[in-house]
Design a protein that fits this description.
The structure is a homodimer of 161-residue chains. With 161 residues, chain A is mostly helical. Chain A has one domain: Up-down Bundle (Four Helix Bundle (Hemerythrin (Met), subunit A)). Chain A contains five helices and three strands; from the N terminus they run E-H-H-H-H-E-E-H. In chain A, strand 2 and strand 3 form a beta hairpin. The longest helix of chain A is centred in the C-terminal third of the chain and has 25 residues. The radius of gyration of chain A is 17 Å and the shape is globular. The termini of chain A are far apart. Strand 1 of chain A pairs antiparallel with strand 1 of chain B, so a sheet runs across the interface.
Chain lengths: 161, 161
């Protein structure tokens, strides 16, 4: 697949990819936080899911994926039932901390390896990880529209601290 | 900033990052295409921008950013006026082709370098490129909500061919 100068050279440091994701996770946390408690699992547009349901999906994917890539254990025990906002934020913070702890345990060569995440999704580890990050950005963008429709200003997209 | 095993090892190949983005660009193209002509620059929710305006923003950032990273020339000549959908799609395809042609001209070590995109946005090249991709995913996610609100099923998120 590679052609041209440096085409197969790796160009993003593992630690930078983690920091990139953690910046997104901080922004997603602020997006969850911006929802009024009573709308988090209620409000939606065009018969889409609520943002709370999307946040549960992100919780079901993020940390379990990193754990799988790091250890080969694919944990699907997270249940997606509705929870109060404070509890979602607590789960989010726990996941964020555990992603940070698991990440340095991924051997560098593992990122290039092909694996089958959760026994269902085959791909190279870096593509699976990028997919999880992209899925978070995608749904958070949808959450922004929900917030605007509710008359609430979403957190600035460019702010990641 | 790096700590732990392999923390500063680069883990995503330049060519894979390009393919990842091009997959997103194919999906964004299908999202633009899914809008009815008369709604592309008209429909919005919560006083947000139209999806057409967002697509113009993506056109103003994507190829010019890659050109800047590859050549040091920061071209801001793209104008964001409203255009018919077919013209937007044509500009999109041209940009996609030029991104593909410019990318192999980026020397591998350039990705780590700090630069100031468009004379305004400082950052490492890989962070600037990831930001452009993320911004596309973010706005496309918003486009999905617009499509659903219009009663149109968006293209599948996981399909990137």
């Amino acid at each position: 697949m590679a052609s041209g100068t440096g085409a197969s050279t790796h160009v993003i440091p593992a630690e930078a990819l983690l920091q990139h994701w953690q910046g997104h996770r901080r922004l997603t946390r602020r997006t969850i936080e911006a929802f009024p408690e009573e709308q988090l699992f209620r409000f939606s547009i065009g018969s889409m899911r609520s943002f709370g349901a999307m946040a549960l999906e992100l919780l079901a994917i993020g940390e379990p994926l990193v754990r799988g890539v790091a250890t080969g254990e694919w944990d699907e025990s997270f249940t997606r039932e509705e929870r109060p906002k404070e509890e979602i934020l607590g789960l989010w913070d726990d996941s964020t901390a555990r992603i940070g702890a698991l990440w340095p345990r991924i051997p560098p060569e593992r990122f290039d390896e092909t694996m089958t995440a959760f026994g269902k999704y085959p791909g190279r580890a870096y593509d699976l990880l990028l997919y999880a990050i992209d899925n978070e950005i995608h749904h958070r963008g949808q959450g922004y529209v929900y917030l605007r429709a509710l008359g609430i200003e979403p957190p600035p997209f460019y702010e990641r601290e």
